[in-house]
């Protein structure tokens, strides 16, 4: 059985060693394709793979067409918008994710980004504190819950909106449920996004939603760049010089943000919420174990395609 680990943005070495241990203990072979720069390299590597572990790597119809022996793709992470699920199903391939495994890493980065923003990007001027401020968590899944837990340690007042999460779940965490996104943005000067990129959420963070955020607003996005309506965010930041945008997913209009808002915009060069040794180990081992469980027991617990 050949398991391909295809990561354009590689895991920490310690995580790769752990993945290898799980795969080889099952008697399978691990093939590594890291830091590839060309899709052709991926198309070549998938030819005889029975399983693939990926991160944000794009697995589209062309990849499935090339992967004649493929039975399973595991996205070592939460969001699977990078995998063409329909093509997977057409090719009889099971797609899974590893929910929750990297969420603490992302949540820690979120709080780091809020500190960076309210301390004026560490430029030496007097900023503000997080204690006592209202934090709005937009979508209350695994990452949102971890953000709430850490934010409470900072003494923040935590609110959340999630159309699919029961109020009792938030209340049990000491988080105040809010009935709509609009009310969340009106109430909270600090907002953290945790929405998946779906047809419904794409471009949904728009001018109308953001314009009513209280003074000294900070928007942190560690979710997906697609959920932001970039031209409307630019318009809003142009109108409001108290508004900051911090993200680890570089917007398509990155250079425009840099030019227009040099002191109120920051993006990491690569998505780095899940870039910790711990998150790599957790998600990597989970992915490898899910593959072994799939082949040995037919387990499809984390399947995301029909
Ligand atoms: C996820 O969906 O799990 C995160 O966005 C992390 O993505 P990455 O594995 O590409 O860093």
Describe this structure in words.
This protein has 306 residues and is of the alpha/beta class. It folds into 2 domains: 2-101 and 275-297, NAD(P)-binding Rossmann-like Domain (Rossmann fold, 3-Layer(aba) Sandwich); 103-267, Rossmann fold (3-Layer(aba) Sandwich). Helices cover 38% and strands 17% of the residues. It is built from 12 helices and 12 strands. The chain has helices at 13-25, 39-45, 61-66, 85-90, 103-118, 142-153, 167-172, 181-187, 207-210, 230-239, 254-260, 277-297, and strands spanning 2-7, 29-34, 51-54, 72-75, 94-97, 134-138, 157-161, 176-177, 190-193, 218-221, 244-247, 265-267. The strands form 2 sheets. The chain has a 7-stranded parallel β-sheet with strand order 8-7-6-9-10-11-12, sandwiched between helices. It has a 5-stranded parallel β-sheet with strand order 2-1-3-4-5, sandwiched between helices. α1 runs parallel beside α12. It is elongated, with a radius of gyration of 20 Å. The two termini are 24 Å apart. The model has no long low-confidence stretch (mean pLDDT 98). Bound molecules: 3-phosphoglyceric acid (3PG).
């Amino acid at each position: 059985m050949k398991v391909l680990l295809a990561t354009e943005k590689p895991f920490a070495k310690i995580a790769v060693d752990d993945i290898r241990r799980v795969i080889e203990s099952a008697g399978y072979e691990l093939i590594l394709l890291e830091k590839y720069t060309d899709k052709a390299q991926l198309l070549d590597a998938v030819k005889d793979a029975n399983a693939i572990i990926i991160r944000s790597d794009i697995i589209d119809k062309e990849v499935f067409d090339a992967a004649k022996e493929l039975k399973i793709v595991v996205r070592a992470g939460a969001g699977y918008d990078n995998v063409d699920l329909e093509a997977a199903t057409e090719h009889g391939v099971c797609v899974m994710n590893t929910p929750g495994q990297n969420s603490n890493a992302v949540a820690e980065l979120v709080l780091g980004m809020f500190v960076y923003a309210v301390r004026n990007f560490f430029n030496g001027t007097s900023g503000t504190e997080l204690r006592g401020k209202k934090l709005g968590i937009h979508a209350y899944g695994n990452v949102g819950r971890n953000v709430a837990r850490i934010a409470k340690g900072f003494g923040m007042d935590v609110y959340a909106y999630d159309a699919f999460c029961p109020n009792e779940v938030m209340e049990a965490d000491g988080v105040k449920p809010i009935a709509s996104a609009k009310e969340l943005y009106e109430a909270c000067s600090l907002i953290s996004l945790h929405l998946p990129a779906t047809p419904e959420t794409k471009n949904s963070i728009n001018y109308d939603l953001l314009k009513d955020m209280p003074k000294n607003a900070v928007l942190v996005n560690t979710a997906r760049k697609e959920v932001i309506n970039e031209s409307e965010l630019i318009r809003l930041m142009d109108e409001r010089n108290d508004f900051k945008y911090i993200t680890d997913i570089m917007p398509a209009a990155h250079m425009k943000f840099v030019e227009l808002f040099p002191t109120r915009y920051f993006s990491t060069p690569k998505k780095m919420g899940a870039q910790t040794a711990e998150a790599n180990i957790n998600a990597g081992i989970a992915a490898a174990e899910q593959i072994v469980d799939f082949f040995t027991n037919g387990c499809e617990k984390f399947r995301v395609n029909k």
